[in-house]
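Issue 218. Parser rejects a valid record. Input:
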Amino acid sequence: MPGLWTRTIGELTLSYVPDAAVAMIPTRVYPRSTEDDWETPHTTPGGHLAMGCGALLVERGRTRLLIDAGHGRISGEEIAHFQDSFHHVRSLPEALAGLGVDPAGLDTVAFTHLHDDHSGWARPDAAEGGRSLFPHARWVLGEGEPAVLAGHGERAVTVSDGEEIADGVWAWSLPGHTAGHTAWILDSGDGREIVAFGDAMHSPVQVEHPDWEVVLDADRAAAERSRRRLVEYLARDGVFGFGVHFADQQLGTVDGSGQWRPWRTGP
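Output the parser choked on:
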């Protein structure tokens, strides 16, 4: 499972802010796969698929933007049928403090979508007073996502495909996992791009198998179309991807053979 890491790409400083970890049962997450498909390095010795949960802190100069908001205060005692176990590896508030970031000082949190493991600390029950861990932040999300965030009506801003929400940060609509699922394209300022693609893919295996839907995809045909667009885009020169659930292979590219090539972010 990934720990906190920081990388500088051009004008951007990217930090993964860990919050939780889940051990998945591969054939239940990917119903089209079989046990034989999982004799790969993507699984643990116990045969589970490791997935991290957290957020991405994006810094450019004095501007700070958080993408997604972790798992929040979910206990993990009631795990879904496709999970083997769940635990907090480090709370997101603690991880932000380690980066010197006061959540109350963040003015923007952009969401790929609003499933619990991406919106946890932005929900009303995340902190006392119902304002979430980020009491002053505006919420930025794609059209079609449900109203589940703290102060959603007064704080949420919905954006369209291609809309710029901050200097060098654009929305890219990749629907299917949810109706409003949105990736965020980050311009590094030196000719490179980073795509924070949320749950458009959950594991590097989907780079090679974009036809494998995830059990939670709302519109499986649309999700596959989005995955194929994403893989094609990540194969371009100078384009990196950030897959929040990609265990210890979160930052990487698609190489010439059509496989995920991770940029190692830890020892």
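Fixed in the parser; the record now loads. DSSP finds six helices and 15 strands in the chain.
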